[in-house]
Amino acid sequence: MHRRSLRLRLLITFGLGALVLSSLFASLTYFGVQRVLVSDRQHTDERDSFVNAALIRNTLYTSPPALPSLLNSIEQATASNVLVRTHSQWLSRSRGAVAADVPTGILHTVDSGAAAEQTINVNGHLLFVVGVPIPAVETTVYEIFQLDPLEHTLRNLLELLGVGALATTLIGIGGGLWASRRAVRPLERVSAAAALIAEGELTTRLAVGQADREVQQLTESFNTMVSQLVDRMERDARFASDVSHELRSPLTTLTTTASVLQQHRDELNPAARESLDLLTADLSIFRVLVEDLLEIARSDAGASALVIETVGAVELVRQSVRSAALHHSLDEPLILVEGDLDDAKVSVDRRRFERVVTNLIVNAHQYGGDAVAVRVGVAGGSLVLDVDDAGPGIPEDEREQIFARFFRGRAAHDRSSTRGTGLGLALVRDHVTSFRGAITAGVSPEGGSRFEIVLPLSKEGE
Amino acid sequence: MARILIVEDDDHIRTALRLMFEGVGYDVDDAATGEVGVALFSRMSADVAIVDVMLPGMSGFETCQALRATSDLPIVIVSARDETADVVLGLESGADDYVIKPFVPEELLARVRAHLRRRPDKGAHAFTLGHLRVVPDEGVVRRDDGTELHLTSTEFRLLTDLASVGGKVLSREDLLERVWGYDYFGDSRLVDVHIRRLRTKIEPDPANPVFLVTVRGAGYKLVH
User: Fold this and answer.
1) Superfamily designation of domain A6-154
2) Which end of chain A is more exposed for a tag (fewer CB within 10 A), N or C?
3) Pick the residue with more confidence: A93 or A288?
4) In this predicted model, which residue has the larger pLDDT, B35 or B186?
5) What local confidence, expressed as pLDDT, does residue A351 receive?
6) What is the pTM of this model?
7) DSSP letter for each residue of B93-132
8) Tens of pLDDT along A315-352?
């Protein structure tokens, strides 16, 4: 299953957390403030209404004609509309206010002698209606207050809180970004360094700069680990190199004395002669093995031993094929150049490249009844070199394993007479890789095996 | 019969080499150190020298230089080190050839035979390179003022062979075959180092050769 990235998870956690918390606080604040403001306002309005009703009663007792001017002054003082009703008749009608706005429920309650209040919504405007009976004069007074200003204040508050919550969420996401970057960056650096090391940049280390304690510990452990691994690799490579180096002198004596014995072959009895032939044959395998081991140890030791030159590709291939064939007394395979490759150049270590071609041709000789063709072409900015034989081919499941050191495929078991060192193709892959190329095994047009090398073309002019 | 000088500190290898060369009929002088080898050579002379690189005291390279200082004899370095830097160093110290241990004995024999077979190309015509007059008949190169420029036999051979094809390009393999007499063991470094050394002797400015020209991707040619 695909794992979500740590960075994304941190980001989501921080963002969501900030959103939930800020929304919660905003809601609490809003509803709290709303309650307080509304009930405050209603208390005030109620109180005003009772006071006003008392004033109206007094006026009705003393001088009814002064009522309109009283109502006017009340409306101005409390920013409300006042409606007075006597004997089920609306006595005075305030400007703007509509008697029909007063809900019938409240009319009944007030008519029956009890004060009542209700919040109503008229055409989207919130109104607070307070009805007060004045039984003495069989009159009821309704005062209608506009709640819109309060509503407006609350809406402003809501907007403000919303903006605050949004800002908090954004800050949360920002914090998440910062935290995730801080947490992930060391991981990314370790991962990049590990990738470089895997590519063979063995001198790669993490910078120990100013970092958190945990990161510093990680950095130090990582660097220590890499150093120890590199030490170990170098020790192994040196060991292999030392061993094969030490083998060179006794091996030289052995091959030379065997050759002296060969000079006197005719003087030997048949058993001694046969033994000598076996000795000579195995000595030559032994010699190639030591050479291959040394070469592979050197290639393990890194690029220091590489001598890279930029050379004409076709000439290089021709020379390598010729020298390989001559050196091993094999027939020179056909070299087929596809396309115009006059300007195709590659950057290689000439000696190692010759070794690559030699090993492939010798391999074809041992397992494929000799290479039948070497094809050179260019595809997608790379040189493509195929070494083809018409032998039995390589089983599909062995086409990758065949490049492993000391891998012995079915072909090697079937043909006990041919004995390779088990290092030839491993060496080929090592060398090709050191030129930044790649090699694969496949099927040749002749039905045998094909080894295909792809090398980047060099753009260097001179 | 030809005389071979072997300088090798490993007793076993030295003995084996002596047995092998004696077995095919050469006279062999052997020495375990460079000092003894050089002393032997000044007394007995030799037609070919085989010198190991890792010697106690005087190194193989120094031994080469000491032998080269007094003689043009072909010198074959035998070494367990095959890094390009080592090969170049060996050839720069005056050796004509470089064989890596463990070698195929027949190959060493073949190389020694090839060196012994080589003789100056007496029939070739004399020619001029700037201020130099190359006279194959006499095996000498003279400057304008009549003094002789010293070339080893390999260098001389390289020069006259390139001259003999009349300005045509010879590949490294061609040169290995013509100059060293090798049919099948090509190490192009052998050619490159000798060309470089020859340039320092005959070119007015070895870094920008005008006579001994590299033809990229093909080989070398002589312009004269």
Assistant:
1) PAS domain (3.30.450.20)
2) N
3) A288
4) B35
5) 82
6) 0.62
7) TT-SEEEESSPPHHHHHHHHHHHHH----TTPPPEEETTE
8) 889 888 887 887 777 888 989 998 888 888 899 988 88
Residue B122 lies in a domain: no
Note the CATH architecture for domain A213-300: Orthogonal Bundle (1.10)
Answer yes or no: is B187 within a domain: yes
pLDDT digits (tens, 9 = 90+) for A127-157: 888 888 888 888 888 888 888 888 888 899 9
Q: How does pLDDT run across A17-59, given as a tens digit for each residue?
A: 999 999 999 999 999 998 999 899 889 988 988 898 888 888 8
Residue at B12 is within a domain: yes
| Closest by CA position to A458, among listed A319, A387, A353, A374 | A353
Task: Say whether B189 and A312 touch across the interface (CB within 8 A).
Answer: no
Phi, then psi, of A172 in degrees rounded to 5: -60, -45
Same domain, B9 and B106: yes
Q: Is B183 on the interface with A (CB under 8 A)?
A: yes
Residue type for position A87? H
Burial class, A313, CB count within 10 angstroms (exposed 0-12 / middle 13-18 / buried 19+): buried
Adjacent-strand bridge partners of A462: none
What CATH number does domain A306-456 carry, 3.90.1150.10, 3.40.50.2300, 3.30.565.10, 3.40.50.410? 3.30.565.10
A304: nearest CA partner in chain B: B83
- Best of A252, A261, A323, A337 to disrupt the B interface by mutation (most B CBs within 10 Å)? A252
Can you tell me the ipTM of this complex? 0.84
Average pLDDT over residues A2-6: 70
Domain boundary among B117, B144, B175: B117
CB-nearest partner of B185 from A319, A327, A462? A327
| B154-181 confidence digits (pLDDT tens) | 888 899 889 888 889 998 888 888 888 7
A450 and A444 Cβ atoms separated by less than 8 Å: yes
Q: How far is B19 from chain A (nearest CA, A)?
A: 7
CB A409 within 8 A of CB A402: yes
| Per-residue pLDDT tens over the stretch A190-229 | 889 889 888 878 888 888 777 778 888 888 899 999 999 8
CA distance A314 to chain B (A): 9
Q: Which residues of A touch B105 (CB under 8 A)?
A: 255-256, 258-259
Minimum distance, in Å, between the CA of residue B109 and any CA atom of chain A: 10
Predicted pLDDT at A97: 56
Name A238's Cβ contacts closer than 8 Å, sequence gap at least 6: A297, A301
Q: What's the total number of domains in chain B?
A: 2
With cut-offs at 50, 70 and 90, classify the pLDDT of residue A454: very high
Last residue within a domain, chosen from B117, B148, B169 = B117
- The per-residue pLDDT for B183 is 62
Domain residue limits at B181: 127-222
Number of cross-chain residue pairs from A and B with Cβ atoms under 8 Å apart:
87
The secondary element (H helix, E strand) that includes residue A378 is: strand A371-379
- Domains of chain A by residue range: 6-154, 213-300, 306-456
Query: Across chain A, what does the average pLDDT equal?
Result: 85
Asked if residue B85 and residue B34 are part of one domain, the reply reads yes
pLDDT top residue among B137 and A367: A367
Longest dimension (CA), chain A: 163
